[in-house]
Amino acid sequence: MIRALAVALLLALPLAACNEDGSSTGSDDSTRTGMGRMVATAPMSTEIQSAGAAPEPMAVGQMAGPPMAEGLQPDAAGFLAYTHDRNLVTEAPDSRVAALEKLCREMAGCSVLTVRVDGSRSGYFEARLPKPGVTRLDDYLSSIAENGEIDRQTSAEDLSDQMVDVKQRIALLTTHRDRLQALYQRSDARLEDLITISRELADTQTRLERAQGEFGRLESRIDRDIYRAQLRAPVTEPGLLAPFGNLGEELLFTLVFTLRDALEVLVWIIGMLPALIPLVLLLTLAVRAIRRRRKG
Length: 296
Hints:
This protein has 296 residues and is an alpha+beta fold. The chain has a domain at 247-295. It has 8 helices and 5 strands, in the order αααβαββαβααβα. The protein has a 5-stranded mixed β-sheet. Helix 1 packs across helix 2, helix 1 (2-17) runs parallel beside helix 7 and helix 6 runs antiparallel to helix 7 (191-223). The model is unreliable at 14-18 and 22-76 (pLDDT under 50). Residues 194-221 form a coiled coil. Residues 1-19 form the signal peptide. Keywords: Coiled coil, Membrane, Signal, Transmembrane, Transmembrane helix. This is DUF4349 domain-containing protein.
């Protein structure tokens, strides 16, 4: 019945070929070998075969290693993700970073990732851009760099293994999904079989979309390079008064703190006046009394 085929397809194919990490399970166990042979040859009962044409039989083990998609053979020149680092000295790094950001936004396919400015002393710019954009930004940095000098460093990450693995998973999951859809559309399928196939179909579609998204991210990383630029302002030479540069600042701070303390004392005295007035009056009366006694 269709239920036996569906169960075999659900158990054998995901375990044998659709692992998320791209590995395949062993086939030494007799039960798994039996399941794999059921999926490979797609056996059907007389009742199902009479209801419609059966899928074309496949050779044993074919699902464990589908053919690679055309144009996706491992090629180091085609699967390298580049990162470009630039370090330079220039006047007004803050305005230069703003100009880099503007150039990127005007460029098709360029995305600004990070912009950081430390006053007028330094600036940092990071973007993801198409390969022709690297030359355009390099030309701009060369025009603003002090003496036209730029420290350049370019590194590459080989993504060939990831690309091949993801594409293989997409092919496996696509085949698995198509076969589930063919089983789901059979006119003689029972309700419980349809429910089981529907659940597996939804899970397979989710994993397929996840794999396609991962492939898209890898493809975008290869097509667009990461560009990072660190800009610093020139270092000025100290003048003759450099040793006394902080003296005026220290004197100013001392004067400010002294005035603050004096104001605090004045405020305290003003606050104590209501209590001091009676004391002053008593002292005045006492002094007058003492003087009268001496005169008498």
